[in-house]
Amino acid sequence: MASPTRLVGNAAALIEARWPDNERRPLSVSDVRAPDIVWVARLGAAADPDPASVKPLYLRGADARPQTAGVLPRQ
Predict the structure, then answer these.
(1) Contact 26, 5 (CB under 8 A)
(2) β-pairing, 28-30 with 6-8?
(3) Which residues share a beta bridge with 30?
(4) Helix residue ranges per DSSP H, 12-68
(5) Strand partners, 8
(6) Against a cut of 0.85, is the pTM above it?
(7) pLDDT in tens, 16-38
């Protein structure tokens, strides 16, 4: 079972307004743009660094392409 949803940010109210009627409502909705730095520090201090390895989350593929113009030959 998923944990309760919390909506935060400048679009939180817009998302809540369009929340599906057949889904459990968000636990909280806040238009705060940034977290309280004191709480961020507390969470960081309380986190166990061993199982909390960093894993990037990419929402889309890379759009970088190899350069084709002005390519210099290898020496």
Answers:
(1) yes
(2) parallel
(3) 8
(4) 12-17, 37-46
(5) 30
(6) no
(7) 999 999 999 999 999 888 888 99
The whole-angstrom separation of Cα 59 and Cα 20 is: 23
Sequence-separated (6 or more) residues with CB below 8 Å from residue 33: 9, 10
Rounded-to-integer distance, Cα 35 and Cα 32, Å: 7
> How far is residue 46's CA from residue 35's CA, in Å, rounded to a whole number?
16
Tens of pLDDT, residues 51-73:
767 778 888 888 888 777 777 77
Non-local CB neighbours of 13 within 8 Å, separated by 6+ positions: 7, 29, 31
Q: Residue type for 62, please?
A: A
Percent of the chain with pLDDT over 70: 97
Question: Across the chain, where does the E strand assignment appear?
Answer: 6-8, 28-30
